[in-house]
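HUMAN: I'm a chemist; might I ask for a sequence paired with its structure tokens?

ASSISTANT:
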Amino acid sequence: MFRASSEFEIFRGALAKIFIDPIINQVKPIFDESVDHFEQTDDGVVVTFTKTKDVKTYDFLVAADGIWSKIRGMMLNSKPRSNSSTRAFMQRISQLRATYCGAAA
């Protein structure tokens, strides 16, 4: 049964496009790499990458590495929880609709 809703459902790719499109010509996204460690300084965030071992300074670091985020764990000085109750909760959360007012279909 179909139910009318004032909520919008948006797919992950469409949401990524909403975030990336306005900034793609101003920043260089880094793909297929991970953060080994980082350090907050007065000048920004100094990031050391895992594969290339490059060390670069940025204005900020976005922790967008997923549900068991390594970066978030580093930021909060904790390990991501991976017990079954947390996993079940996070699976339920991932099933909820993302709402974005004004999103194009």
